[in-house]
Amino acid sequence: MLILIKLLFLLVNIFIQFENVLSHFDDRRPNILIILADDLGWGDVSFHGSKQIPTPNIDLLASSGVIMNNYYVSPLCSPSRSALLTGLNPIRTGMQVGVIAASQPYGLPLNYTTMGQHFQRLGYRTHVVGKWHQGFFRSEYLPTKRGFDSYFGYLTGHSDYFNRKAGDFFRGYDLHEMDHIANLTKYQGQYSTDMYTDRVLELIEENRYENTKKPWLIYMAQQSVHGAECGDEIQPPRRHENDYKYIQKNERRRRFAGMVAALDESVGRVFKALNDTNQLSRTIIVFSTDNGGATAGTTGYHIDNSQGSNWPLKGGKYTLWEGGVRGTAFIWSKLLPKPYLSNQLMHITDILPTLYSAAGGNTSDLGDIDGLNQWNQLKNPNNKNNYQIREHLLHNIDHTKHFWALRYRNYKLTNGTSLLGQFDNWYEAPGQQTEYPPNGICYNCTTTYQILEEYGIKFEPITVQIDCQRDKNPIIKCQSKKGMCLFDIEQDPCELTNLAEKKSDLLKTIHKKIYEHYNVQYTKPVNKPFDPHANPALHGGFWKPWLDQNPITENFL
To answer: Does residue 133 have an active-site annotation?
Structure first.
């Protein structure tokens, strides 16, 4: 009997030691928070040199982390989100053309594995909060069916910030929890940016390491600062309605600043929650915009009737100019070395393999993706070659509208414009370079500053301001009717000087080697026409997976 007790005691000890080994392994895996802003322009954050709209929390985390200064996204919401979730260029998934309108019956095809599914295999708890915009016409396209343990947010592309109404030809309410319609009364009147932040804070609290052995991944797809619904697109929270009185040249830009402020406050609140729950030191934070800002065009019309700015970059959302695809982004983590500015060429498809590697995963498990693992480079930024990991990337190929653009090292090759050339300009928001906060930006007023100080992180708020070097770059227009256009983005970031004639041999070489490399991968777009059966009036006033309940619509496809 004594021998049996000793044997049992030994087995218990072995089990405890084994549990400790597993626990130690889990403790080494970082939490991952991805904050994806919507339509945030290059000129809408103050760390890019535009002090008109102060973004102290974003500035502080960018300056104390790794600023990704040579980082690119797709020019539109749905394609960028598909690239983030799959690590694949949208031309390979059929998501390259336009965005998914609320009543269009298509989404990211089900045969592609998402980030959530990949991280679930690593033992992560996975969550989506905010904008989905990857299809919902059938329930199997919902986040909870595509690798995410929980979901709270809206399924369409844009929504009212207060009452959750959304739509295209049809209007309806759009707010979901898990795979069901949310209780609108519970959230009535709450400002969506705050509402989604509150949910992320709940998840952070629930997923303390003390309470679970599983690390977590939270994909926080904020609504800010996308325009709301037609007729009332600029919707700041009420607390910021009368702020920024120094912005006097344009009332809409002043109110837009309140929308940006809500996004910046959200970043600060989440950072504080991570610190308060003792999870900050083992969390990787990735901040990125999904595409460039929604700016004005040559006729004075603003994209989505919003008031964003990409100054001094050319173009805006929808376009393949730098203003449409050069993304505001940074990575913050205690796992990375001291703060620095990275000019490594990087693409939104790289986020998946980079984070997967940081989590201890073997990137070969991700399959044949376009994204490249940049984690080791981020940790060891000694190589001054900006193309050490990635030499080229694709901005997009759209054969339906006959325009494309790509990057090879410092050169950008494109066949010109889109949207009838209306946004082929350099748009400076009214007062952007003259209207500043009278007392400057108070960084040490923020909790973010205090937390960084407590951690002993020494840094100065960085201003990464693009110099167009107009004296060295005379305007030589890109006229697509005359053929392809070539720009040296390192020397000419504002795309002033078309080098097509001067470097015609180089142009031909890049087109033959790089464009053809991507063009053979082109997949037919999966877009579908509007379906009248999606009308929320047929479904209790809500946007929901309408093909689950209306088999008649099958004939429409």
So the answer is: yes
